[in-house]
């Protein structure tokens, strides 16, 4: 059986990723593909337990380095329990956030050492890199207004301050340029239908 494809969605807060993840999963499923929808941090029972530690509490609850280690512990379990088994079974995996969020949030935003991030990524993700990464781009002020307007309980990252989120946006843009073979920058402005069309245009080249 052919290995499935692995698609990840990345971007700052309030960019509309989760909405578009759902739309893409529906669209791929309609073509007859078996699709697994998942998220980070989380995506497996162990990883979800770590998620509760990471997304709750005050903005300074964890240092960037500690936060990074927690994220990769969560990612390790997620890969072992959810992502790798699905791909090996031939399913497509669509994930709301993955390793580039660590490069952006803990690295560009928080200041964790890039060499530590890449060492962890080599050891934990290894060859299981995404086939396609969609990086959603939106002005920081617009995204934060959307995110905080949702009234969600998990607001630890949203509360890290405007400058953090500006570094975050710049970090994601840099990542998209650094990995052009798999990253596509998606303009997240406009209606959900307009953004969905941009997503589908980016995904079509990897369809069977």
User: Which class of secondary structure composition applies to the elements?
Assistant: alpha/beta
The number of domains: 1
Largest sheet: 5 strands, parallel
Radius of gyration: 16 Å
Report strand %. Answer: 5-15%
CATH superfamily: P-loop containing nucleotide triphosphate hydrolases
The CATH class turns out to be Alpha Beta
* Helix percentage: 40-55%
Number of helices: 8
CATH topology: Rossmann fold
Counting DSSP E segments of at least 2 residues, the number of strands comes to 5
Low-pLDDT ranges: none
Distance between the termini: 14 Å
Q: What is the arithmetic mean of pLDDT?
A: 93
Topology as a string of helices (H) and strands (E): EHEHHEHHEHHEH
What topology, given as strand order, has the largest sheet? 2-3-1-4-5
**CATH architect. name:** 3-Layer(aba) Sandwich
Shape: globular
Describe what this molecule looks like in 3D.
This protein has 208 residues and is α/β, with parallel strands linked by helices. The chain has a single domain, classed as P-loop containing nucleotide triphosphate hydrolases (Rossmann fold), CATH 3.40.50. 53% of the residues lie in helices and 13% in strands. The protein is built from eight helices and five strands. It has a five-stranded parallel sheet, sandwiched between helices. α3 runs antiparallel to α4, α3 packs parallel to α5 and α4 packs across α7. The radius of gyration is 16 Å and the shape is globular. The mean pLDDT is 93.
